[in-house]
Write a structure and sequence with these properties.
Elements (H helix, E strand, L loop, with lengths): L2 E6 L5 H10 L4 E6 L11 H17 L4 E4 L2 H14 L5 E3 L4 H7 L4 E6 L1 H5 L1 H8 L6 E6 L3 H6 L6 H16 L4 E4 L8 H8 L4 E3 L2 H14 L12 E5 L3 H11 L9 E5 L5
Parallel strand pairs: 1-2, 1-3, 2-9, 3-4, 5-6, 5-7, 7-8, 9-10
Helix pairs in contact: 1-10, 2-3, 8-9
Length: 269
């Protein structure tokens, strides 16, 4: 059994934790939400890199056997440096699934909904440059969406209206595939389906990310104990009770078999 750290700017990484609990429920997890600073997508690359390193160092100090940087923006801006500094443990990041989207698209038109920082990052654009020129990517920053999700408004009319504005260029271009390029955005699936219907293919990389975590743990010899479910420690830099409540609302895995505790870490304020 392993202790897995999961870090995000807020509640978006709960989509990654949810998938981890489905695939690897036997491990113990620390979920660290830097909600006092969410969203990261509108901050400078230097700030994102520094803050991400600080929080990953904290998780490493808690004894984590692996860390999942469950934030596309933090992955894009900081993961190379984090891996260099914390080279003794696996660091798994997330990135927009533009490669599988290009492979799955029928008409070669793919929408990418992500934060401004992710879309402008060198890491994202280097990945984009490796893909075939015959696939057209419609890049759209989802400004304002993360803040609404953080406020528990994923399915509100305000969110639906803002999301419709962001999706309009993608829809007008005729995209048949949409990349959810922020870990917050899987919580908008219901709203996206309401606006675009079932014909568009949604790409979310959480399943592949957790498979990569599983492979890393296996190389460490971390064997699973199928007889139990691990614990979950929820840590917030803003409001531990709200994080706990939103985890209960957003995570679809059965949490009743896990021991859950939550805490506020004021040192990160």
């Amino acid at each position: 059994m392993a202790l897995i750290g999961v870090f995000d700017s807020g509640v978006g990484g709960l989509s990654i934790l949810d998938e981890a609990l489905r695939q690897l429920p036997e491990h113990d997890y620390i979920y660290l939400a830097d909600s006092i600073n969410a969203p990261y997508g509108e901050k400078s690359s230097e700030w994102i890199a520094s803050r991400s390193m600080e929080l990953c160092q904290y998780l490493a100090a808690q004894g984590c056997d692996a860390i999942m940087v469950a934030c596309n923006t933090a992955t894009a801006q900081a993961i190379a440096h984090i891996r260099t500094e914390l080279h003794h443990i696996p660091i798994i990041g997330v990135e927009p699934g533009i490669k599988p989207a290009a492979m799955q698209s029928t008409n070669g038109i793919v929408g990418v909904l992500a934060t401004e920082a992710t879309l402008k990052s060198d890491k994202f654009n280097a990945l984009l440059a490796t893909l075939p020129n015959d696939c057209q990517f419609i890049k759209q920053a989802g400004a304002g969406l993360v803040s609404l999700i953080e406020a528990g408004q994923a399915n509100s009319e305000e969110t639906l209206e803002l999301l419709a504005q962001h999706l309009e260029p993608i829809q007008d271009a005729g995209a048949d595939t949409l990349v959810l390029g922020c870990t917050h955005y899987p919580f908008l699936r219901k709203a996206i389906r309401k606006l675009l219907g079932d014909s568009i293919n949604l790409i979310d990389t959480s399943e592949a990310v957790v498979r990569q975590l599983k492979r890393k743990l296996e190389t460490q010899g971390k064997h699973l104990d199928d007889s139990k479910c691990g614990s979950i420690r929820l840590i917030s830099s803003k409001d531990a009770d709200t994080l706990h409540q939103m985890a209960q609302e957003l995570i679809q895995s059965d949490l009743s078999s896990h021991h859950i505790e939550s805490q506020l870490v004021s040192a990160f304020r």
